[in-house]
């Protein structure tokens, strides 16, 4: 958790310095085009500050009011960031539209382009670093902040190209037209972040996570694990909570059942690359399970095994034992 805080603090400090540089470029040039980048840098600072708070809160231990921990605050952090980006983009869009009809002269275009180019390069390097670290630390907040910085790099690159055009084609309306294009791009980026955060807050299915967990269990499947079904995953910050039904031989005693459940938890936590908390409901096998059961020397087998049913998204996420899946038999 200390690594996450350090990364966000670095991003916050860099964002403040770059924000001041961009506003300096705006006051030098009076360009609305540069103002789009300067306004987004304000969002960078606010987003990094809230990201630091959300990471601090998500690291707090579970309590009676938050039995699953505080990890979902990271989705809220991303929502705030996306909202701020969208507001900045819409504001700039209206201002640029106004200046399209009431243009003003732009000054010192070359100086402004140099400042913006340097800030864009710094944001790009930091953004790639934060995305990589966000994935390795399983932090949606750090990853989202990194993607925001990459967006800033792209817009800065567009600004340098646009400012170069303005230098060689000194049309007053060009500044407003280019800034409107960048503003639209900013709004789209903000929408994507909002959409992702809402999906997390609404417990939208994370198919990549589920598929990864299913593959781990399938590749290491034990004979006693007759089938897995009704598997669902929820993300709570850096943790994943999974509940599922595991069918075991009905002659297992409670100690054997407990050992099999624990072996599933240990296996997934060893290979998943992140902390996974399981809630496993165990089902006893039925005679209808025999035709796909791998259990050797079974004392209650009703018929020989005759088919192999692979574990995949289709038959592990549905709320039915494998023999109830018409397409699986």
TrEMBL record:
<protein>
    <submittedName>
        <fullName>Cation transporter</fullName>
    </submittedName>
</protein>
<dbReference type="InterPro" id="IPR027469">
    <property type="entry name" value="Cation_efflux_TMD_sf"/>
</dbReference>
<feature type="domain" description="Cation efflux protein transmembrane">
    <location>
        <begin position="8"/>
        <end position="202"/>
    </location>
</feature>
<keyword id="KW-1133">Transmembrane helix</keyword>
<dbReference type="Pfam" id="PF16916">
    <property type="entry name" value="ZT_dimer"/>
</dbReference>
<dbReference type="GO" id="GO:0015341">
    <property type="term" value="F:zinc efflux antiporter activity"/>
</dbReference>
<dbReference type="InterPro" id="IPR027470">
    <property type="entry name" value="Cation_efflux_CTD"/>
</dbReference>
<comment type="similarity">
    <text>Belongs to the cation diffusion facilitator (CDF) transporter (TC 2.A.4) family.</text>
</comment>
<keyword id="KW-0812">Transmembrane</keyword>
<dbReference type="InterPro" id="IPR002524">
    <property type="entry name" value="Cation_efflux"/>
</dbReference>
<dbReference type="InterPro" id="IPR058533">
    <property type="entry name" value="Cation_efflux_TM"/>
</dbReference>
<dbReference type="Pfam" id="PF01545">
    <property type="entry name" value="Cation_efflux"/>
</dbReference>
<dbReference type="InterPro" id="IPR036837">
    <property type="entry name" value="Cation_efflux_CTD_sf"/>
</dbReference>
<keyword id="KW-0472">Membrane</keyword>
<dbReference type="GO" id="GO:0005886">
    <property type="term" value="C:plasma membrane"/>
</dbReference>
<dbReference type="GO" id="GO:0015093">
    <property type="term" value="F:ferrous iron transmembrane transporter activity"/>
</dbReference>
<dbReference type="GO" id="GO:0015086">
    <property type="term" value="F:cadmium ion transmembrane transporter activity"/>
</dbReference>
<dbReference type="InterPro" id="IPR050291">
    <property type="entry name" value="CDF_Transporter"/>
</dbReference>
<feature type="domain" description="Cation efflux protein cytoplasmic">
    <location>
        <begin position="208"/>
        <end position="285"/>
    </location>
</feature>
<keyword id="KW-0813">Transport</keyword>
<dbReference type="GO" id="GO:0006882">
    <property type="term" value="P:intracellular zinc ion homeostasis"/>
</dbReference>
């Amino acid at each position: 958790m200390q690594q996450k805080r350090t990364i966000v603090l670095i991003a916050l400090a860099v964002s403040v310095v770059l924000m001041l540089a961009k506003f300096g470029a705006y006051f030098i040039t009076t360009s609305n085009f540069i103002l789009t980048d300067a306004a987004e840098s304000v969002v960078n600072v606010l987003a990094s500050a809230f990201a630091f708070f959300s990471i601090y809160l998500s690291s707090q231990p579970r309590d009676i009011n938050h039995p699953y921990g505080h990890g979902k605050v990271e989705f809220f952090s991303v929502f705030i960031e996306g909202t701020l980006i969208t507001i900045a983009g819409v504001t700039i869009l209206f201002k640029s539209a106004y200046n399209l009809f009431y243009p003003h002269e732009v000054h010192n275009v070359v100086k402004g382009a140099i400042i913006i180019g340097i800030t864009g390069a710094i944001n790009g390097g930091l953004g790639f670093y934060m995305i990589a670290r966000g994935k390795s630390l399983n932090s949606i907040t750090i990853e989202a902040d990194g993607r925001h910085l990459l967006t800033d790099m792209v817009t800065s690159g567009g600004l340098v190209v646009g400012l170069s055009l303005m230098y060689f084609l000194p049309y007053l309306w060009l500044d407003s037209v280019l800034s409107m294009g960048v503003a639209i791009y900013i709004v789209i980026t903000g929408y994507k972040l909002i959409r992702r955060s809402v999906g997390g807050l609404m417990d939208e299915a994370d198919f990549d996570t589920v598929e990864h967990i299913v593959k781990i269990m399938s590749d290491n499947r034990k004979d006693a694990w007759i089938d897995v079904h009704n598997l669902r995953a929820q993300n709570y910050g850096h943790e994943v909570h999974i509940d599922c039904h595991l069918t075991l031989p009905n002659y297992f005693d409670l100690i054997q059942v407990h050992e099999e459940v624990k072996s599933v938890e240990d296996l997934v936590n060893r290979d998943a690359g992140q902390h996974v908390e399981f809630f496993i409901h165990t089902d006893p096998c039925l005679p209808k399970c025999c035709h796909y059961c791998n259990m050797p020397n079974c004392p209650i087998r009703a018929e020989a095994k005759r088919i192999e049913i692979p574990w995949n998204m289709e038959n592990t996420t549905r709320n039915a034992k494998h023999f109830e899946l018409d397409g699986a038999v």
